[in-house]
Design a protein that fits this description.
Layout: H1 2-17, E1 25-28, E2 35-37, E3 43-46, E4 48-51, E5 57-66, E6 69-75, E7 78-79, E8 84-87, E9 92-95, E10 104-112, E11 117-126, H2 137-166
Protein name: Immunoglobulin domain-containing protein
Signal peptide: 1-23
Transmembrane segments: 137-159
């Protein structure tokens, strides 16, 4: 019994003397929802890093995974693709001219000065974009009809006012 009690005291002393702090850096995306982007458009992914004053970010990587294929897009400020740029102190990834192969999961991994790593991921999905040459005739027609109704309403009340005034 005395032997077990001594072990518990040693474990408590170790924990009290050397608290276990895994990382003082956190990373996340503002939303857990997928990001939708159309073919040919620009994808912008914004991560949020939180760093304690005593900590420093040593390395930031951005990876893309589609199926079983994983590709490193950025290491710190060095993109591995001419369509990729990083901004806002490596917290924002910008990918121009989105292609079918760009859909999938994106992961940003942050490594602090102690070697601790933390990551966050977001899924990027395709959304059909309206044809830029297509005119939205439905909306235009609705605005025209609304304008005609308003003009008729005003005209009717003006005529009623004039008729009552003549009497």
């Amino acid at each position: 019994m005395k032997f077990l009690w001594q072990h518990y005291l040693v474990i408590v002393w170790i924990i009290a003397e050397r608290p276990l702090i895994l990382s003082c850096v956190s990373v996340r995306f503002p939303s857990r929802e997928p990001v939708y982007v159309a073919l040919g458009r620009t994808l912008v992914l914004k991560a949020q890093f939180e760093v304690q004053p005593a900590e420093e970010i040593r390395l930031v990587t951005w990876d893309h995974k589609r199926g079983s294929q994983e590709v490193r897009l950025v290491t710190n400020n060095s993109p591995h693709n001419n369509r990729v740029t990083v901004e806002m102190d490596r917290q924002q990834l910008r990918l121009t001219g989105v292609q079918n192969s760009d859909y999938g999961h994106y992961t940003v991994m942050v490594t602090d000065d102690k070697g601790n790593q933390i990551s966050a991921s977001v899924e990027v999905l395709n959304v059909l974009a309206p044809d830029p040459d297509h005119k939205n005739w439905g909306l235009i027609a609705a605005v025209i009809i609304e304008t005609v109704v308003i003009v008729c309403f005003i005209g009717y009340h003006c005529m009623e006012y004039l008729r009552r005034r003549k009497k």
